[in-house]
Amino acid sequence: MTAAEQFLDPVLAEGPVLTVSNLSVSFPSEAGRVDAVRGLSYEIATGEVLGIVGESGSGKSVSSMAVMGLLPGSARISGSVRFRDTELIGKPDVELSRIRGRRIAMVFQDPLSALTPVFTVGDQVAEALQVHRRELSASAARNRAVELLDLVGIPNAGSRAKAFPHEFSGGMRQRAVIAMAIANDPDLIIADEPTTALDVTVQAQVLDVLKTAREVTGAGILLITHDLGVVAGVADRVLVMYAGRAVESAPVDELFARPRMPYTLGLLGSLPRLDDEERRPLVPIEGQPPALTNLPAGCPFTPRCPLAVDLCREVEPELEIVAMAHRAACHRSSELVRSDATDVYGVSTLAEAGTGEVPRGERPVVLAVRDMIKHYPITRGTVLRRRIGTVHAVDGVSFEVRQGETLGLVGESGCGKTTTLMEILSLTQPERGSVEVLGRDVTGLDRKARTRLRRDVQVVFQDPVASLDPRMPVADIIAEPLVTHGVLRSEIRTRVPELLRLVGLRPEHASRYPAEFSGGQRQRIGIARALALEPKLLVLDEPVSALDVSIQAGVVNLLEELRVRLGLAYLFVAHDLSVVRHIADRVAVMYLGRIVEIGEVRTVFRAPQHPYTQALLSAIPVPDPAVERARERILLTGDLPSPADPPAGCRFRSRCFRYTALDAADQRRCEQDDPALERTDAPDQQVACHFAAPYAVL
Amino acid sequence: MTASTDLGTGAGEQVIDQPRRGALVLRRLLGNRLAVVGLGVIVALFVLAYTAPLVYHWDYEELDYTAFLAAPSADHWFGTTQVGGDVFAQTMRGLQKSLVIGLLVGVISTAVAAVVGAAAGYFGGWVDRSLMWLVDLLLVLPSFLVIAIVSPTFRGQTWLVFVLLLALFAWMITARIVRGMTLTLREREFVKAARFMGVPPWKIIFRHIVPNMSSLLIIDATITVGTAILAETGLSFFGFGVQPPDVSLGSLIAAGVDSAQTFPWLFGFSAGFLILAVLSVNLVGDGLRDALDAGSVRSRRADRRARGSAT
Question: What is the ipTM of this complex?
């Protein structure tokens, strides 16, 4: 602890911890040098959280790797990185190693690959301590490791320290990584997308731990993320990066309230928000981020900017002060005061669906799932297999989707959303319960009838890279469902360009391969393929979660427009509740293979009744610092129990905050009685909780 | 990029040219210079092997008792053997046999491997178990022994039977690799998408799974072409396959290798043709792999070149 006290010494802690000035990084590539970072400058003060946001390829991660000296030898780095009084650029790796991990710590995105699978977690934390402090004895290091694990909120840290990384859940692993990062009381913690791989409720926990880490160590934190909501809740100052440059930097409130660069404005407008009352169209930023080889002169955002003038094409704007502590790199930033993204980007409001007038109850049911069950056996033994347990992946799920509406199915990973989808899509008899598509029970369908029914149910997958056959030209990909269902070749030739136009692509793209398209465009191809047969129901499995925000907005708008135009019904699976809030009419919340709450989106989001829904909603960050600070966060304890061994009685009991507040008699009810879905006072809301009570979390 | 953008302006409602996958692959293949050269050499070798004997003044079975071990000359273009056989005539005869045997074995064994491996991997269950049992069985059987035992049965039959026998023992290891790749491809979303579209299983295998393994299959086929030509030599030793006085490149090389230093024409010409044949097959294979691989930079460049020359 003496070392730590020394670092927290006020004399040493004065001035910025890190000063980056004019940092440039370039890599060689086949197409010429890639200028990944082009003249980046920023400072971080002690105890300050600087959030760097940007889309993939904006250079945010590369710049932090440059600070750590972790870039490959082929990278060319110039500029200056000063940590306290030491210049880091040009220092040999041996000297950097003495600083890395001791005074600058790093938290990576993937907690699984950041930990060595063959050592226990406790040993790895102890190693982080001993590497920099030789004099520390093994037992002292181990004791300190347990203390650190306890500090980051790992229950029973003493015994859990002896566990291996694979025995930890994702959130626990990330906590252990943070424990390693703060082990030596660093002056600076670089967190590169620390919560991207985690579920929202776990994300909220980890962000909380990160805040604790800052309080304990007093370190400055460099938080790199693509999620503006996370930045709004955690950061003090924000730096927006685009095409390897900082395009705007400001204190967090200022940036969210008065963005002065069209890109920032567009990013904020493209985010679906949890607290939106009315459905407003999202603002997609047209086009792609530029390739960072041979960038043309002028502002790199020009091709996508609605405000571009001739000057923008000629001169790249410098990052200049536009207000107190607010810098922006835009020639027209002075005109942007108090502008609305929808005005600047000129998005028209959406026309309401034609079915909007027909009340829901009178519209035909497209999909009806009743009491569906899917269990997987757990077996042991290779020669003589015996069943030793059951994974209750989906355990009695019922819902309906009517024509022209979107049902959002939400829940954390492992709750059974995807299994539910796959069961529906297989169009075979479920283990128990029934699936009805357009009024036809799928049980007892023969092969022909099932193939015919597939015309009406199509799917769009999450990963736009994996869902298109890389060896097929786009025309063949889109034509495949048509060919399969015996559409004439002459008709296909006219239909393919039609479909491409429908999803906002150009017909001449038909002869290209998927690899030549960006993620958003590929997702559009996937949608075109799904629409080829004019289905009645579209099943969407996380269709936008793999896309950058500005691209995501375009795809969400497209989906909404198509639903209205073609009268489609969507079953929309997502973990991002903001997107669901935006696109869905009704929402079903799943937990451990069950639906715990279902109902109209507005009702469920405004007055959620199930404690899990409340926790889930409160965990979602809102991209508005003022709202974020005012919100009270319900932090769930622990992780999702294993679906092989769900708790008896109410399944949510093990993590429920309401359960812990009950008296013994009521608690017994939760332990013994499994609550069923029951109607609430609201017209369309059902909830499975003995002690359901509305609680506004927004 | 720019070329195709120009194409689309004013496209309006008319149907735009949508080349099918086959046409696109062919165009990309023809845009690859080395592949075209390889293809040209293979065709030239076939033409040479089948037409040259028609116009040449010696037959491969004829013996010239005036010239033993004569060096290449105007009369005997590639020289003569110890017993006065004409090396050029024999080489051409051998080339006919070896080209056909090599290409057929390469294609057949790879095709069998692809079908068996993909079926085992895709269907799983008992299909997988029984096919893999067959593969393991064929792997542990000593192929030379089996061929030696069955050879009397096929004696006097067409040598195409021999091609099938060679292919029979060349596909198992590839099939195992194909099965492994199929297991991962089966879980990819585009395969699931096809399944949920209602595409029948065999169509999924041929349309999605096999093309995505084309790099492996093409490399495997080109290697097999070379090994099959050489394996045939070894089998001929068992008194099966190409029998004297008939010749193949393999048997010519085997006969000439001892005197390669002193009488180089006995060995050099047949070996040269073998190398030329295998090399051009490899060039075509490389070109085909690039043409099928959508992501390959080289093929995109070739594509652009082909498109540019077409307009």
Answer: 0.76
Task: Name which of A457, A498, A484 is nearest A367 in CA terms.
Answer: A457
Domain boundaries, chain A: 47-70+93-242, 258-273+296-345, 360-456+535-601
| Averages of pLDDT over each 10 residues, chain A, 698 residues | 44 72 86 86 90 87 87 87 88 86 86 85 90 87 90 84 85 87 88 83 84 86 89 91 91 89 87 76 81 83 86 87 86 77 68 60 89 85 74 88 91 85 88 88 86 90 87 89 89 90 86 83 91 91 84 87 88 88 91 91 90 89 85 79 83 88 88 87 88 81
Residue A283 in contact with residue A270, Cβ under 8 Å?
yes
Question: Is the Cβ–Cβ distance between A421 and A364 less than 8 Å?
Answer: no
Cα–Cα distance measured from residue B209 to residue B189, given in angstroms and rounded to the nearest whole number: 12
Specify whether the CB–CB gap between A327 and A249 falls below 8 A: yes
Asked whether the beta carbons of residue B19 and residue A485 sit closer than 8 angstroms, the reply is: no
Phi-psi region of A14 (alpha: psi -120 to 50; beta: other; left: phi over 0): beta
Say which CATH topology domain A360-456+535-601 has: Rossmann fold (3.40.50)
Superfamily for the A47-70+93-242 domain: P-loop containing nucleotide triphosphate hydrolases (3.40.50.300)
User: B141: which 2 tokens?
Assistant: 């059987």
Nearest residue of chain B to residue A462 (CA atoms): B189
Let me know if residue B266 belongs to a domain.
yes
Sign of the four-CA dihedral A539, A545, A547, A551: positive
Residues of B in contact with A462 (CB under 8 A): 189
* A218 touches B at CB < 8 Å: no
Which of A462, A484, A511 has the CB atom closest to B197's CB atom? A484
Nearest to residue B178, comparing CAs of B219, B130, B231?
B219
Whether residue A546 lies within 8 A of chain B, CB to CB, comes out as: no
CATH of residue B128's domain is 1.10.3720.10
Contacts of residue A469 in chain B, CB cutoff 8 Å? Answer: 190, 194, 207-208, 211-212
Comparing CB atoms, the residue among B18, B193, B208 nearest residue A459 is B193
